[in-house]
Amino acid sequence: MDSICFPSPTTCLFKHGSHEPQCGVMLALGRSNSSSSPLIPRPSNVSGGKAVARGALEMSQQQNLTTSGMVVVVLPMTLGIVSNIVALFILVHAYSLQRRRSKATFLLFATSLVVTDFMGHLIPGALVLRLYISGGVRPEDSNSPDALCQFLGGSMVFFGLCPLFLGCAMAAERCLGVTKPLLHSSLVTTTHVKMCLSVIWLAALCVALLPCFGLGSYAYQDPGTWCFIQVLSDIHESDVAFVLLFSGLGLTSLAAAVVCNSVSGLTLVLARLRRKPGSHHPAKSHDIEMVVQLLGITVTSCICWCPLLIFGPMSAIHSYNGPIEEDLPNYKMLLVMGVRLATWNQILDPWVYILLRRTVLRKIYLIAKCQAGLGGNFFSCLDTSSPPQSEKNEVNQV
Question: 174-189: per-residue pLDDT in tens?
Fold first, then answer.
């Protein structure tokens, strides 16, 4: 075989087993048409074509990421807005028909919670959607937040703390109403509830505005389409203090709500065990309904918020103590997952109230009992007329 090499423009061909270059052949090839020679590669735009293909692939991937990101933003935002609107109509209707003051104050708290969750989906969701449409910020600009980032980060902190504060206030109000009903009737009025709501919103707003006064900072988070507290890079002592304050307030609110709901539940259980057979107290049934709803809201808040409230300070402290470049992608992924899980709290809160009302629980109980009596025929249960009075009394006692 002939060995052919092309080390330079003055390339020569070497015969197998010969040390003399066959330059005459090379000169002949040089005088011949290079495009028709089988030994010289034809000039082509292979590298340029690869670059164009690579650019088209990256552009297609970027468009797919943008589309999937917009779906992730739009779907929860739409679901949360619809859920809170449905719950708001139910609460307003129930508040207009309610004559018991203790129930009215609870409904006022619940309505405020639903309105806050609704605004928490609408305002930050619209800003994040705008950033997705514009393509987000470049990685080199992520550490220099603008006015939009400051507003978006403050909105997320404000609408994150408000539901936690409101859940704690609702649990404390119900605990006082169950354990000290006389003190509750004299202390908890509609005016006092409105003042409490104003204090809660003002406190959350003050915490959200702390970066404007030098305590902590907001920064664009990966992939540059949303803003939150600086917890992953360029961490200062003020950032650690700010995220500790945010997480500490949230965890304290959750803990206080759990304690208050536990006391209320135990008090109602003991009162029910001490009740004489055949007696019925409508007030106690209302209290049970409200406490069950609060337990559902508290459990939902703990599941949705605890990962972010625990992971945020941990990541900030680790980043402050040393570089985390090796684990930075994992930290970014966990932060995004924690924030997305926290947003589901604002979606599930209204459904907890909608599904845990006495009216719904009664219907579920009657359908289950009807199914058991009719051999599991669900449609026959739906077609049956209203249950007899004995069954209604039995349901009222549940």
Answer: 899 888 888 888 888 8
Tokens 């090796």 label which residue? 326
- pLDDT, residue 106, reads 82
State yes or no: pLDDT of 16 exceeds 60. Answer: no
The alpha carbon of residue 330 and the mean position of all alpha carbons in its chain are separated, in whole angstroms, by: 18
> What is the per-residue pLDDT across 20-66, written as a single tens digit (0 to 9) for each?
444 433 333 344 344 444 444 444 444 455 444 454 444 544 454 45
Residue with tokens 């003991």: 270
Question: HEC profile for the chain?
Answer: CCECCCCCCCCCEECCCCCCEEHHHHHHHHHCCHHHCCCCCCCCCHHHHHHHHHHHHHHHHHHHHHHHHHHHHHHHHHHHHHHHHHHHHHHHHHHHHCCCHHHHHHHHHHHHHHHHHHHHHHHHHHHHHHHHHHCCCCHHHCCCCCHHHHHHHHHHHHHHHHHHHHHHHHHHHHHHHHHCHHHHHHHCCHHHHHHHHHHHHHHHHHHHCHHHHCCCCEEEECCCCEEEECCCCCCCHHHHHHHHHHHHHHHHHHHHHHHHHHHHHHHHHHHHHHCCCCCCCHHHHHHHHHHHHHHHHHHHHHHHHHHHHHHHHHHHHHHHHCCCCCCHHHHHHHHHHHHHHHHHHHHHHHHHHHHCCHHHHHHHHHHHHHHHHCCCCHHHHHHCCCCCHHHHHHHHHC
> Is 60 exceeded by the pLDDT of residue 5?
no
Distance CA 187, CA 103 (A): 14
For residue range 139-176, list pLDDT tens digits in order: 666 666 778 889 999 999 999 999 999 999 999 998 99
Q: Please, how many CA atoms are within 13 Å of residue 222, restricted to the half-sphere of its CB?
A: 13
